[in-house]
Fold this sequence. Notes:
The chain has helices at residues 12-22, 39-49, 62-69, 80-87, 104-112, 122-138, 148-156, 190-193, 203-211, 213-226, 263-272, 286-289, 304-314, 318-334, 342-356, 366-387; strands at 2-7, 28-35, 53-56, 75-78, 93-96, 116-119, 143-145, 165-172, 233-237, 243-249, 254-258. The chain is an alpha/beta fold. A seven-stranded parallel β-sheet has the order 4-3-2-1-5-6-7, sandwiched between helices. Strands 9-8-10-11 form a four-stranded mixed β-sheet, covered by helices on one side. Helix 6 packs parallel to helix 10. Bound molecules: NADPH dihydro-nicotinamide-adenine-dinucleotide phosphate and magnesium ion (MG).
Amino acid sequence: MRRITLFxxxxxxxxxxxxxxxxxxxxxxxxxxxxxxxxxxxxxxAVRLGADLAVTCYPECYEELKRLLAGSGIEAAAGSDAIxxxxxxxxxxxxxxxxxxxxxxxGLVALQHGTTLALANKESLVTAGxxxxxxxxxxxxxxxxxxxxxxxxxxxxVGEDIAAVERVIITASGGAFxxxxxxxxxxxxxxxxxxxxxxxxxxxxxxxxxxxxxKAMELIETKEFFHVPxxxxxxxxxxxxxxxxxxxxxxxxxxxxxxxxxxRHAIGYALHWPQRKSLPVARLDLAKxxxxxxxxxxxARYPALALATRVMEEGALSGAVFNAAKxxxxxxxxxxxxxxxxxxxxxxATLDKMSSNGLQNAQVTLDNVIETDRLARIxxxxxxxxxx
Length: 388
Ligand code: NDP
Ligand code: MG
């Protein structure tokens, strides 16, 4: 029996993981599930999976969670400290699928306890890559990528020498606005930005796909996770979302990872790693698909990509600035306070402001990440009010 914990169990990635685990329950001892507002789903899944503990991050949701779990013998808890405490419970494998920088602390705590961490929460790597991977190393723990592109790169590297890698190509569908005239992008609405051509994901990451902030995050993740310099990492528009990434080697070979756009593949690979086990994902009929297409990304359409290059080059805490400003700008876009293209203006202005203060150059410690996140949100808020 493998002891497992799922952080962000009620979300899109969390539910895909539960779909896999629920098919094979006799193999797992589910220790804790965490969620947020969706306590109905959290409680139902805790019962279905026989978890010991269910935690909502919101103290105001505690009573409801406790009521839903009454008589089940499952412990209820609430708040971010309770999530960190859940992360300290010994398990063999944990999924980090909380959205946003709130995923960082539970991941760090799990790694401090030697847990193998399957990492979907990209904000952890973007804001605190050296801290996260340094913690894993110090405690002999393993971090496995779950973001599909990084899982693809990881799989393409099995048995290879990283020194033979010349380039890493991550693909992008181009998002909801890939065929819009660039001049029209400023008018894009929340509803238009919230639908993805190929992937079914949480709302925030779907909007980030339309703006390519998601791909920008993934560029930074690639640099942090695989320790490759920014000059070796490329983005390629690939509308079909069937090739998730390619690794180019010094003999000219490209190893591509091809599969259906279904997060259960990357989650399942991390769940069963280092083995491969059968997964309930579609098998591709390439003759039917016929052709795969590739295009270079248009810098004017996707200004987030240039911001990612800047962050990768600046390093240190600029990832924390970038992520906080992006999260704040996304909140403002969702609240209809700013337009779609204003999101990259807010992030750019926040990076300028924080770099003129020299704040992003400090060491990547948890305290510095939290303080940088706090300050960057304030500066991003100022940039938002100047635009509004
Ligand atoms: P969702 O928004 O669908 O789910 C987020 C989860 O986190 C939910 O369980 C939510 O609870 C919980 N949550 C929300 N806020 C907090 C908080 N402050 N503290 C603790 N828990 C919180 O997100 P996704 O599943 O789409 O994404 C999760 C992570 O994985 C993100 O970092 C995303 O970028 C990354 N990712 C997602 C992919 C996808 O296909 N969706 C692909 C690759 C990476 P509740 O819903 O109950 O409020
Ligand atoms: Mg991805």
